Amino acid sequence: MAELHLFLFPFTAMASPCELRLYATSQGFADRAAEAAIAEVDRIEQKYSRYRHTSVLSAINRAAGGDAVTIDSETSALLQYADSAYQQSDGLFDISSGVLRRAWNFKSGQLPSEREVANLVAVLGWPKVELTAGKVRLSQVGMELDFGGFAKEYAVDAAARVCAEQGIAHGLVDLGGDIRVLGPHPDGSAWQIGIRDPQQPTQAKLVVPLKSGGLASSGDYERFMVIAGKRYSHILDPRSGWPVENTFRSLSVVAPLCLLAGTAATVGLLKGVIAAPAWLDELGLPHCWVQANGQTGGDLGPWQS
User: What is its EC number (predicted)?
Assistant: First the structure.
């Protein structure tokens, strides 16, 4: 059997630093797999970015309050997933909540008015999205969908699938810290995934061993503001329109798919320090967290490596 070598492919996508780590028998073999995987990530970004006027998502949002928009099977499947996530999270995972960005600017250092937030909460709401076979309609003017809550994780899984189709049996896909591994290292050892320290983001607070599946993290330490001594997180509760309180600085979840891990991490942050651990345990998803005081917990960590 030919010897496997590790090849690294750094790139940028979805405004994030990314990397593929692929074991292959030759540079050419690895190059072909990486090229196909990166092209798939680019395809997904082009198709679902709200920043691109030509994207499917932009077309859906432009039609808000008007006629239904015809969608393909991939988009339909993603919207069905969003519906399932909304139901299973008791409404916390709501891809129509992106409208709240209109009120919240965390670089401004200023709070929006209660009226401004309330007006936007009145616009959003996944139940207002009409999803039928091959079509979607946003029933109210001013509504919009935002795939930012899961597009990157979906792209991670898609890139991993493409690598596997190209013959890669041992590898890792990393899109801005959202991870999917294709089996362990060739010697059977786990990939060691560092979880950022919210206090020192260039350092790892925890190390998680991973031989299969995906890992995603969600946190409030990169975007927040402090006003009159109170800290306001950029993690917004779609029910109130205001930042969630009493939550973790960061929460990381392992699941068979990076998509599932990312959704669970986002919902876990919204559920907060009291409810999230039991909810994740009930789902059977391994997880770890870092609290504001630096305390760590969960059932993942360096002690498992």
Answer: 2.7.1.180
Question: Residue 6's Cα: distance from chain center in Å?
Answer: 27
Same domain flag for 94 and 74: yes
Which two tokens mark 25? 């028998």
Residue 197: HSE in the Cβ half-sphere, 13 Å Cα cutoff: 10
Segment 227-286, tens digit of pLDDT: 878 888 888 999 999 999 889 989 999 999 999 999 999 999 999 999 999 999 999 999
User: Using CA atoms, how far apart are residues 224 and 180, in angstroms rounded to an integer?
Assistant: 28
| Same domain, residue pair 304 and 194 | yes
How many residues are there in the chain? 305
Domains of the chain: total? 3
Q: pLDDT tens digits for 10-49?
A: 999 999 999 999 999 999 999 999 999 999 999 999 999 9
Of the candidates 165, 210, 187, the one whose C-alpha atom is nearest the C-alpha of residue 3 is 187
- C-alpha to C-alpha distance for 162 and 256, rounded to whole angstroms: 16
Please give the Cα distance from 251 to 266 (Å, whole number): 8
Task: Look at residues 181, 207, 255, 176 and name the one whose alpha carbon lies nearest to residue 22.
Answer: 181
Asked whether residue 149 is marked as a ligand-binding residue, the answer is yes
Residue 113, in any domain of the structure: yes
- Are residue 158 and residue 44 in the same domain, yes or no? yes
Residue 229 in any domain: the answer is no
Q: Is 288 exposed, middle or buried (0-12, 13-18, 19+ CB in 10 A)?
A: buried
Nearest 5°: CA angle at 292, between 288 and 296? 30
Indicate the burial class of 18 (C-beta count within 10 angstroms; 0-12, 13-18, 19 or more). buried
- Tell whether 54 is in a known binding site: no
Q: Looking at the structure, do residues 256 and 137 belong to the same domain, yes or no?
A: no
Residue 156 sits in which domain range?
1-48+150-188
